[in-house]
Amino acid sequence: MTPVRDSGQTLNHLIPESFPFCTVVDDCPQSRRLFHVGPNDYAAGRALAKQAILYRPSSLKAAIIAPNINLEGTIQRVAGFRDMFQEENRSDALLCVCDIDGQTEKLSYENIYDKTRELISLHPELNAIYVTNGLTQWVAAAVISAGKQNDILVFGHEYTNMTKEFVESGAITAIIYQKPASQWYFAIQLLYEYMLGEREIPESNINTECLLITKETLPLLQIGHI
User: In angstroms, rounded to a whole number, what is the distance separating the alpha carbons of residues 210 and 75?
Assistant: First the structure.
């Protein structure tokens, strides 16, 4: 399952002790889960912060847009992004961190689009945006609608048909793709082997491979393969 943050006691109450379970993508280490399979979110935030610094070696002014800001993975990505800026002596380049409300998927799309347009209006100096989840394409769409696609770099996560088009056009500069199908397949395989008695879980936190996708690296990658 993919839990929400601080849901450990709830999971322990709802799931009988005899039922083995694991977490995928996002973690809940306070629960009885056997193991977690997912990306190193802190490293992902650091990697995209470094990309922003490399692409904007001077006059960098960035904002973080963070849907689901209370999820453990989002918290780690924001922390990694902030820490890289601090280590590179660019803390003053981070203008703000914006939470995005959204009780439904449609509202999340609308709110992140509107928040991006608002940020562009409030911060004319803004030239980079980091999106902490797979809504990156909606930020790119807002940047294009504001006529800022040549001025604002967009960094984010996940890979969809819309994301592919924006990466190819340059509207999205770089994304990290965490290969979710591979994560779920691997987690189910491990649980299956554990329940058959064929495997002991060697560690509680299993980080999986991610891809850094840019316009230049896209032709080199096989997306969607397990």
Answer: 18
